[in-house]
Amino acid sequence: MRVIYLRLLALFLTLLLTITFPACSTINSSTRLVIYNGQHVQTTEDLVALFRGDAKASIGLRNADENQLADQLIVEGRRSNADLIYTGNTLPLEYLAEHGLLARLPDSILALSNKKYDSPNGYFVGISARVSVLIYNPSLISKSKLPQHISDLANPEYKDMLALAPGETDLYPIIDSFVLAYGKNAALKWLEGLKMNATNHIYPDNESLVLAISRGQAAFGIANQYYYYRIRAELSASSVHCDISYFAPRDPGYVIDISGIALLKSAPHKSEALDFIRFLLSKKAQQLIGGYRVNNLQSISYEYPIDAGVSISKTEGETPFSQLQPYPITITELADGHQARSLLKEAGLL
Amino acid sequence: MLETTSARLRNLSLPDYKIALVLSLLIALSLSSPLIFLGIELKGLGFSSLLTNCLRPLTLSLLVNTLELSVLVSASTLILGFFCAWLIEQTNIKFKNILGTLLVVPFAVPDFIISFSWYSLSPSVHGIFGALLVMTFALYPLMYFPIASALRSYNKDLEEVARSLGASKIAVFFKILVPQLKKAIFGGTMLVLLTVFSEYGAFEILGYQTFTTEIFTEFNNFDLKAAASLALVLVVLSLVALFINFGVESSSKPVSNLTGYRKNVDLGKWHPLAMVFILSVIAVSVGIPISTCIYWIFNQKATYVIGASLLSSLVHSFIYCFLSAFVATILALPVALYTERKKTAFSHIIFRTTYIMYGLPGIITALALTYFSLYYLKGFLFQSSEMVVIAYVILFYPLALVCVKSAVARTSKRFEEQALTLGKTKTQAFFRVTLPIIAPGLASSFALMFSACITELTATLLLKPIGVETLATNFWYYEQNLAFGQASEIALVIIALGLIPSFFFNRYFQGLSAKTT
């Protein structure tokens, strides 16, 4: 009897398999554009929806961690099927440019962008901006006690209060900024001080960091401003306990972080790709990023539009871009994050 | 025309295993092919640079961290897994089906949820203590499964004989029961060790540095050569672990429980305590992640959809995991048969080679397969569903192998030979004699593989076709957005999906053995 059951089972399984296997190959051959996306998926999906509008055009997104996408592009080399790479930080784009994988953007596109936030050699353009802030839990530390300067974060008075995400790419522009202001040796000492203050509060990314602060596991930490607004939008008010604070004007910790897009040299759909970049720099896309309702779509990216003519929507009370007073570090000086990472390794944080 | 029995017997043996040998060799080579990619990355690196990469001061502390934790976790999961398996399979504890199914749930829970739920409870869950706690309750199913599978077809007659000869209960336990489980224990230990080696998500959150967390750091640093160097060290480490012979490859063949006669140990007054123990294990390993999910679901605000719909990701997850589990189980058969029946140095090597990629992070397999498809196969299968299934099989094959192998160990060539003398062909002998005996092993293999594949993330993100989402990738999109409520909904679906094959097969085979009592 047992054998009959087994035979029936085997038969059933084989049938199930033959039915399901063809369903597996859902490769979309009508894809017109392939974007390797390291930006937050929701933001990019909203932008793609706006770009497509009613058109049937198929745009494919490959979403993954931006650094791993960069690795993937390096391995894929010239046989990659990617047209564009869209990231939350310019560091991977700079690295890919150094490796000769990016195509220089045409002048017509570069003319549309905000020069200040583009690659100096025209390999990528900035699409949105973020600013580094302190996120803190008001019940664990009062606003007045928060450090005003980035260098103060290493002070012994903040022992056990700091949350840190050494692997988070958003941190590297801050480290580079620190080196520019105070030099490498001071930066190393500072990182070692951070390590002391952040024992037991090391997190893999900004999402966990902000959540931990909100849940009272650490008193404060550095993150980009939009995380604060996102957590308040995502989770119920009763479960969010954090607030935002800016660094002193022009302090090295007060850094603008740029999310950019680049064209791959091996892109199979170059003109569509350039259309998309042009679209991202257009008023409509910038307004969507800024939180305005555009064509019945509304995004909650909370990032700053790069277009100086579009200011962020006032709904959440975010500080307007024009009122920010960041440290004047340029994209060129930010490079590919190599320096920041070596310092982090030397300090034993990575 | 007329053949004597002995002549028939002489016609058996070696030729039967030639096919199995060739298949096993092919399988082992295919499974370890991503190593070629490592070799390519390391080729451009000079030997001195390789040494510099590998012998950083950090390397020693990583080695200590990795080894320390692996040994501790192996011990703790062995104790926990064995005890639970014994209670479920060998005693008369109530609700075996449900408990047995719930006990393997932790394996289907995503890394992030497990470690984050522990970490949310108390910040003191950190460092090595935190890692040990989290890993024990997350990985004991790896010990539980093979041991339970072996116990299910364990032959009690030997115990009866020993008892009748005057052996004490303890002597019977250590001299009869444990030796028969050696293979299962060995297999489970290898899995636990290698899982700890390749674990990343949980350790990131717990702040525990191992080789794999360092490999990821190098990948994030775009330093593929440094990552490959560290991966090489990890491969060596895995091989050392794999080749340590615990003396389990004994020549004595245990007899399988063909009669189906099972006399369970009567727990008597220990019954309530045993129930409390099992329920506590389930509460801790399953309750904590699930209650964290439920907390987030009730505390979410936003309700938009990112990525694909839940239904679409569910269907794709199911298809990928089902196929991977099926393929891996089928591929495990020849290797299990060959390595169990032919104990040569070659078979030992083949067996251990199949484990190597399991001990390495998935990103290496993903990048390797991408490279092979683009540069060796002219883009064939590049970013396709088939590629995802191949990746899953490479990554999780040892899970299938250990279950099937432990079941094959219960069988004996003699039964097949007897069938042959009775006039059956080799194929018939296999299907009517061996297959029914190893069926529970095949089922366990399927269930374990299925649960493992559902939570795979890194390789899936890089290899899947564009536009296709699995439950794991969709989960990640929400988590990235701080949409923990929606992520938790998916996590619960993942857990439920992982339960189904486990429940079905547990029930089916419990029922089978009950029928024949």
Write a brief structural summary.
Chain A is α/β, with parallel strands linked by helices and 350 residues long. Chain A is built from 13 helices and ten strands.
Question: Can you tell me about this structure?
Answer:
The complex is a heterodimer of chains A (350) and B (517). Chain A has helices spanning 2-24, 41-52, 66-76, 91-98, 107-110, 172-182, 184-197, 206-214, 225-234, 270-281, 283-289, 331-334, 338-346, and strands at residues 31-37, 58-63, 84-86, 102-103, 124-136, 162-163, 220-224, 243-245, 256-264, 304-305. Chain A has 350 residues and is α/β, with parallel strands linked by helices. In chain A, strands 1, 2, 3, 4, 5, 6, 7, 8, 9 and 10 form a 10-stranded mixed sheet that branches. In chain A, helix 2 (41-52) links the parallel strand 1 (31-37) and strand 2. The mean pLDDT of chain A is 87. Chain B has 517 residues and is mainly α. Chain B is built from 23 helices and no strands. Residues 9-15 of chain B have low confidence and may be disordered. Chains A and B meet through helix 1, helix 2, strand 2, helix 3 and helix 8 of A and helix 7, helix 11, helix 12, helix 15 and helix 17 of B.
Q: How does the helix and strand content of chain B classify structurally?
A: mainly alpha
Task: Identify the most extensive interface between protein chains.
Answer: A-B, 74 and 70 residues
Number of helices of chain A: 13
Q: Low-confidence parts of chain B lasting 5 or more residues at pLDDT below 50?
A: 9-15
Biggest sheet record of chain A:
10 strands, mixed
Q: Strand share of the residues of chain B? A: under 5%
Alpha carbon gap, first and last residue of chain A:
60 Å
Oligomer: heterodimer
Rg from Cα of chain B: 23 Å
Termini separation of chain B comes to: 42 Å
- SSE topology string of chain B: HHHHHHHHHHHHHHHHHHHHHHH
Write the layout of secondary structure elements.
The complex is a heterodimer of chains A (350) and B (517).
Chain A: H1 2-24, E1 31-37, H2 41-52, E2 58-63, H3 66-76, E3 84-86, H4 91-98, E4 102-103, H5 107-110, E5 124-136, E6 162-163, H6 172-182, H7 184-197, H8 206-214, E7 220-224, H9 225-234, E8 243-245, E9 256-264, H10 270-281, H11 283-289, E10 304-305, H12 331-334, H13 338-346
Parallel strand pairs in A: 1-2, 1-3, 6-7
Antiparallel strand pairs in A: 3-9, 4-9, 5-7, 5-8, 5-9, 5-10
Helix pairs in contact in A: 2-11, 3-4, 6-7
Chain B: H1 5-10, H2 14-31, H3 34-43, H4 47-54, H5 57-90, H6 96-103, H7 111-121, H8 127-152, H9 157-164, H10 169-198, H11 201-206, H12 211-220, H13 224-243, H14 271-298, H15 310-341, H16 345-353, H17 362-375, H18 385-408, H19 413-421, H20 426-454, H21 458-463, H22 471-480, H23 484-515
Helix pairs in contact in B: 2-15, 2-16, 3-13, 3-17, 4-13, 5-6, 5-8, 5-10, 6-23, 7-14, 8-10, 8-18, 8-20, 9-10, 10-13, 10-18, 12-13, 14-23, 15-16, 15-18, 15-20, 15-22, 17-18, 18-20, 19-20, 20-23, 22-23
